Amino acid sequence: MDDMILNKDNTTAPSIPGITDWNALIMKSYPDIQWRFDMRAPALSRLPTPVLGIRAMKKAGFMGLFSKDLTQVILDQPLQQLEHAMILHTLGLTLQANKYLRKNPDARQQIRGPKADMSSMRILLKSDVFASLVLHHTSDQDVIAQRAKRRAEAILTARHGPDPSLFALAMASDTIAVTLDKDKKRVRHPDKLFLHEMMQRANDICNAIDQSVYNLWYGFGQAAQDMAWRGSSKRAILGAAFLAESPDIRNIALMISDITNIAPYAADRLTAHYSAFNDMDSNEKAHAYAIDREFEWILSQNPVESGSDIFYKAADRQIDGLYKGRVIGWCADALHHSAKAFDDNGGNNVDALDAAKQAFETHKRTDNWDKINTFGEAVIERNKDGKIVGLNELQDLAIISGVEGIKDALDVKKLLQVEPSTAPTLAPVFSVPSAAPKTPAPSIAPTLTVAPVMKGPGGMSGRNSIKKAQEPITHIDNKDELSEE
Questions:
Q1: pLDDT, tens only, 216-253
Q2: What are phi and psi of 422, to 5 degrees?
Q3: Among 82, 99, 368, 415, which is least packed, fewest CB within 10 Å?
């Protein structure tokens, strides 16, 4: 990967031939912009860009007879370390903010970078389109298609850093393509006039995109990210989206499948599978179905001959899933009760098996789905923040969420815990085969962005599906005031 550089959003992009130092080119084109690295910035940030703040300044001239306008951009990492597309994305944000500050002299002279919520989407898209157009006209590569594909893949992937739901470039790719069809492709030198022209075109493209597009992408992204962090594979996420009631969600799933060449799972592969595109009732039914199928699988292993170990191994497998927030089909506490009843009644006869069945039926509904799902969401939030999620943390979250069954199962797990070198190999279970996400690696004044609150896409409801945007504080009309003329 010598020719690849990592973006802030953990995606990679090929180096652009012909331009080896975008940093120097921007410094030359915009000498009135100062770039400052804030060493106090946290190493793990969920902010969508490296921009922490932008400040309007004046530099006094000789004997104070004149002054020069300057813009200082505060970053969470040195500009020289940013990948070229992120440098251009950051420049796009700076040009938008700088224009707002100059047009509004009465405004406070320092504003924050984009927030990690839905209100930032229009500003982020304008900067994304700006960077894509610049790269498109300065190379012979199909940069826009490549960047749209990376944005689409990111929304299906559990990854630390910025929320991919905030980057709607894939939804704007058709609009960009129509614009580019009118302009014959030619490689151009990116001087200041050219960059100004690309900023204006990015503004025109974003003005042609309705707010509902941002709403739909954000809603889809929140559901997809929920599933990704619970361990669902990309194919499972797309398959679940294709089964959603909302035609808008199905259309987005089809678009992402086409862009990324990822085929969704068929419906028969998703039985007893959690879907953030469904409402609470549908997931509760899937949860109940997964519990019954789990116990059916255990009975098929002939516990009379294999012993109670099969119950404990299945329970351990479910407890292991808790570390990633996988809770659908949870019944480990009931399996512990079944194992005890099985052993208490001899362990190698039909009466023992009947006792195990009775114990499972009695305890499989200790906690309702709503509480279990709340626990899973709390685990996911810790993982997203890069916080430790160990057995003690799971116990604390179980107490906070009020899930007695999960707490009891974790207590038993602690009592039976053995050293990893001697721990038994966990048996496979029926419920939810899926690919786990990668293991996680061990604010200045008014905001730059704002957008009106919109409801999530149709056909999805419930806390476990789309997280609706909270109403932001309005500081700037980003569509009008931050547009580049």
A1: 999 999 999 999 999 999 999 999 999 999 999 999 99
A2: -110, 5
A3: 415
Instruction: Report strand pairing: 33-37 vs 51-60.
Output: unpaired
pLDDT-derived band at 62 (thresholds 50, 70, 90) equals: low
Measured CA to CA in angstroms, residue 473 lies from 97, 117, 324, 373, 451 at distances of: 17, 12, 33, 30, 9
Give the long-range contacts of residues 141-145, CB within 8 A, separation 24 or more.
141/14, 141/16, 143/16, 144/173, 144/176, 144/177, 144/180, 145/173, 145/259
CB 93 within 8 A of CB 53: no
Q: How confident is the model at residue 181 (pLDDT cuts 50, 70, 90)?
A: low
In degrees, rounded to 5, the angle at the alpha carbon of residue 220 between the alpha carbons of residues 90 and 203 is 35
Judged by phi (left if over 0) then psi (alpha if -120 to 50, else beta), residue 272 lies in left
Shortest CA distance to 426 belongs to which of 321, 281, 296, 324?
Answer: 321
Q: What's the burial of 383, exposed, middle or buried (CB within 10 Å: 0-12/13-18/19+)?
A: buried
Percent helix, percent strand, percent coil in the chain, to nearest 5: 50, 5, 40
How many whole angstroms separate alpha carbon 290 and alpha carbon 363?
Answer: 15
Q: What average pLDDT does the segment 121-146 reach?
A: 89
pLDDT at 83 over 90: no
- First CA to last CA across the chain, in angstroms? 39
| Two structure tokens written together for 306 | 């294999």
Task: Give residue 182's pLDDT.
Answer: 62
8 A C-beta contact, residue 398 and residue 406: yes
Tens-place pLDDT, residues 184-223: 556 667 788 889 999 999 999 999 899 999 999 999 999 9
Interatomic CA distance for residues 475 and 396, integer angstroms: 39
Residue % of the chain over a pLDDT of 70: 77
Global model pTM greater than 0.85: no
Token digits for 12? 């990679």
Q: DSSP label at 40?
A: T
Distances (CA, A) of 176 to 133, 144, 198, 217, 446: 9, 8, 12, 17, 31
* Cβ(166)–Cβ(215) below 8 Å: no
DSSP state of 324: T
